[in-house]
Structure formats: structure tokens, C-alpha cells
Design brief:
By secondary structure, this protein is an alpha/beta fold. The protein has one domain: HybD-like (Rossmann fold). It is 32% helix and 17% strand. It has a three-stranded mixed sheet, covered by helices on one side. Helix 1 links the parallel strand 1 and strand 2.
């Protein structure tokens, strides 16, 4: 599940990864999604799935732009799409789904790239983020392969 906004500089990362994954020969039971929203919408998108990899741009301030982060869902996720003062964050969405007896995935991991710019309206990634796109695609494909075996 690739999150982001295709017209906001590095927040476009999810869209770029989704475009590339959509051209790959994925296993029959694997679906690549692009979602420009988060919050409560995550409940619908996660419901009934077994395993999910979320790909997104992230700003931690503790790594240079282009750095890769990989962590299980449930950690604080300082991402434009996964946390917001106007929406629920990913851990809260998961807990709410469980409380409402909505079937949530057994495994959710986050593959994120440290962003440089998530505010400029521009349909292009910054150079440090663009440079790691092939590596992010490969890591996503590796995750899919490991999760399907």
C-alpha cells in the first residue's frame, strides 16, 4: 500500500513506487495500491488483508533525505499520511479496527524514505529521494517474496 500525494514533491514517493510495482509481475494474491488518503480510510483498506507493506515518505529529522527506514507498524510514524492532527494515525486505526472486530492484518510493516520536501506543489521528487526509488522498489519486491513464501 503506497501512500502519498502525487503533486507534492517527496510526498509523491508512494505514487512513484506504486507506478513501478504496477508494472511488475506480482503474485496473483498480491495487490499494489496507491492511496492519497489515510486516517479512517485505512480501516477499509486494511480490512481482511493478511499482510501489508506500507510505503511512504517520512520526516524524522534524525536521518538525511533519501535514508531508508523499515519498521513494524505500531511505532510512531511521523509521516504526512500516517499521522495528522485531522486524522487518526496508523496505530490508532489498527486498534480501533480491532475494537470494532474488523479483521486487521496479522503483519503490517512500513518502508519509508526520509523526505526533504513534503510541502512544495511539484510533480517531481527531490534528488536524494529520487535516487533511492529503485532500491525501495527492490525492497518492496523482496518483502513480497518473503511474505509469500
Amino acid at each position: 500500500m503506497c501512500l502519498g500525494n502525487e503533486v507534492v514533491s517527496d510526498d509523491r514517493l508512494g505514487y512513484e513506487i506504486w507506478l513501478r510495482l504496477s508494472k511488475c509481475a506480482l503474485p496473483e494474491d498480491v495487490e499494489a495500491l496507491f492511496e492519497p488518503a489515510a486516517g479512517f480510510r485505512l480501516l477499509d483498506l486494511l480490512s481482511g488483508r493478511r499482510r501489508v507493506l506500507i510505503v511512504d515518505a517520512i520526516i524524522t529529522g534524525s536521518a538525511p533525505p533519501g535514508a531508508l527506514h523499515f519498521f513494524p507498524a505500531g511505532h510512531l510514524t511521523p509521516s504526512r499520511q500516517l499521522t495528522s492532527s485531522h486524522q487518526i494515525n496508523l496505530p490508532t486505526a489498527l486498534e480501533l479496527g480491532r475494537m470494532m472486530d474488523i479483521p486487521m492484518p496479522d503483519k503490517i510493516d512500513v518502508l519509508a524514505v526520509e523526505a526533504e520536501d513534503v510541502t512544495t506543489l511539484k510533480e517531481a521528487l527531490t534528488e536524494p529521494v529520487a535516487m533511492v526509488v529503485p532500491e525501495v522498489v527492490q525492497k518492496a519486491l523482496d518483502w513480497i517474496k518473503d511474505s509469500c513464501s
